[in-house]
Q: What sequence folds into this?
């Protein structure tokens, strides 16, 4: 009589044969063959005396449990071998978790470094914008003072009058450019525009001094 059971996953190379003889019943012979066949576990139970089967069921169960140790090893320690424990798989799982944790920590460190860099750039840009705003305020005040000075100059000749009106027109252009410069989003472009207007203001101051000598 033949009883066959299967369905347990094998690891390659498993080939365990166990012969069990029930004590006191020499006529009852059981053989459990656990062999690797296409990744499955095939267990065959040969019963010499069918009437003795019930008495040897506990022994058969123990043998089946032993054969279950042929199951494929995984990284889950609850699925590896006798008593659901596989030390090698457990160690491998710990190493995998350590590597994963190390990768996560490295990624977090890189993100933190990038965040610090961006924050530093933002702080530097804020300081630069504040300094540029202060320069524009000073330039605006000096230009307004220059305009007031030109208007106090007495122009007696037509040449003086034309020169004074020209200077006042140039001062007005500088003041208009200053207002537009305040809206320039790029700090570097804004700084260059302020420098250009400063040079223009300095040139106008010289021209005002020349006007007063006419």
A:
């Amino acid at each position: 009589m033949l009883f066959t059971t299967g369905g347990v996953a094998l690891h390659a190379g498993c080939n365990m044969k166990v012969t069990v003889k029930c004590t006191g019943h020499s006529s009852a012979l059981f053989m459990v063959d656990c062999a690797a066949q296409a990744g499955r576990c095939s267990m065959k139970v040969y019963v010499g005396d069918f009437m003795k089967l019930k008495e040897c069921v506990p022994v058969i169960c123990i043998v089946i449990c032993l054969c279950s140790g042929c199951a494929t090893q995984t990284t889950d320690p609850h699925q590896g071998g006798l008593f659901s424990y596989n030390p090698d798989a457990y160690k491998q799982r710990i190493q995998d978790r350590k590597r994963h944790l190390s990768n996560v920590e490295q990624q977090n460190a890189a993100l933190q470094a990038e965040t610090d860099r961006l924050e530093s750039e933002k702080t530097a840009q804020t300081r630069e914008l504040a300094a540029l705003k202060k320069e524009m305020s000073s330039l605006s005040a000096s230009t307004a003072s220059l305009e007031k000075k030109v208007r106090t100059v007495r122009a007696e000749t037509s040449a003086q009058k034309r020169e004074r009106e020209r200077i006042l027109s140039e001062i007005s252009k500088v003041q208009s450019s200053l207002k537009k410069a305040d809206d320039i989003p790029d700090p570097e472009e804004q700084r260059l525009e302020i420098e250009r207007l400063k040079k223009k203001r300095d040139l106008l101051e010289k021209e005002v001094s020349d006007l007063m000598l006419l």
Observations:
- The first strand starts at residue 2 and ends at 9.
- The helical segments are 57-67, 87-151, 158-181, 187-213.
- Residues 78 and 84 are 5 Å apart (CA to CA).
